[in-house]
Predict the structure of 3-methyl-2-oxobutanoate hydroxymethyltransferase.
Amino acid sequence: DRPVTLHELAKMRAEGRKIAMLTCYDASFAALLERNGVDVLLVGDSLGNVLQGQSTTLPVTLEHMVYHTQCVARGSKRPMIVADMPFGSYQESPQQALRNAAPLMAAGAHMVKLEGGAYMAETVRFLVERGIPVCAHIGLTPQAVNQLGGYRVQGRTEEGARQLISDALALEAAGAALVVLEMVPASVAAELTAALTTMATIGIGAGKDTDGQVLVLHDMLGIFPGRKARFVRNFMDGASTIDDAVARYVAAVQDGSFPAPEHTY
Ligand code: KIV
Ligand code: NA
């Protein structure tokens, strides 16, 4: 199979073929996700939670992200690899973001992801113009948990919804290829997705009317010991193997049966 490039993602968006994304942190799972049809592997800073046992993503370092990106890159060929920029590695300036994105790209990432709305647009443009594709991330941005006051749904008010949509438009204009929408009302995610012309939306707790979906691997396999968020479905329920569970996730994203209303705000 041909590798998943920016061009292929744009084509999937234009043709209405859903993008199936999961987090991935090592070579064995990278190979497993690839053989079951996952399009995009996110080396998420959620590794702080699910691998390291931290209560937030804030302690994750660039060195951790580089190491896990190398592991994932060795295990897969076809999927696009997106690496999270960790807390404190990009917020200071576009220059700081480029300096810290470079080792992630050298480690095998094809795109970096950073959290934040319109105020990050200048940084997004700076990276994109210098050859680094960017995935934005708005709504619930876990690196800002202390400012947000917890892991809660974002964009519930009319003003909050307007803000999310103007943030997305600014990030799209700056050249971001993808945007993760985390914990936003389905109606807002749908309106936002319809307002965009090039940037593909990837939902997590954002309803079914996005261009793709993402979940944390350990959540969708039911092996994370913490509380299960409303938007998570355990795909091991009724599956015989991990391969089977991942294949069911990909099929459910592609046919629109996941997320269902019970996973949605
Ligand atoms: O780190 C992560 O796993 C993420 C996803 C939840 C989108 O950012
Ligand atoms: Na993340």
Observations:
- Residues 44-46, 57, 84 surround sodium ion (ligand 2) (CB under 6 Å).
